[in-house]
Design a protein that fits this description.
This protein is an alpha+beta fold. About 40% of the residues lie in helices and about 20% in strands.
Length: about 90
C-alpha cells in the first residue's frame, strides 16, 4: 500500500496478481493521471501511510480478504504458488 500511497503504479503492480498486473498498472496510472486535483488528493489521503492489517478472513467460497485496522481499506487476496497477491482493491 505504500507504493499506492506514493503514486508508484509500477511498484504497486508487483504486488498484484501476476497475470493481471500489467493491465492493472496501465489502467491505474491512466486513472490517476486523469483525476482532478482535489479528487486525487482525497483519494490518496484516504490510504493509510502505514496500514496495519488484521488477520486474513477466508469465506467458505474461498475468497480471502484483509482489512486495515481502521477499516478504511479492504484488499481481496489470492494465493498463487505459495505467494499472496492483491486481486482486488
Amino acid at each position: 500500500m505504500k507504493a499506492v500511497k506514493n503514486k508508484d503504479a509500477d511498484k504497486a503492480s508487483t504486488f498484484w496478481v501476476p497475470d493481471q498486473a500489467e493491465s492493472w498498472r496501465v489502467a491505474t496510472a491512466d486513472s490517476w493521471d486523469h483525476m482532478k486535483a482535489n479528487a486525487t488528493e482525497l483519494y490518496f489521503d484516504r490510504i493509510p501511510a502505514d496500514p496495519a492489517f488484521g488477520a486474513p478472513v477466508t469465506t467458505p467460497a474461498g475468497l480471502t480478504t484483509i482489512q486495515s485496522g481502521d477499516k478504511s481499506l479492504t484488499l481481496e487476496m489470492k494465493q498463487i504458488g505459495g505467494n499472496w497477491y492483491v486481486a482486488k482493491m
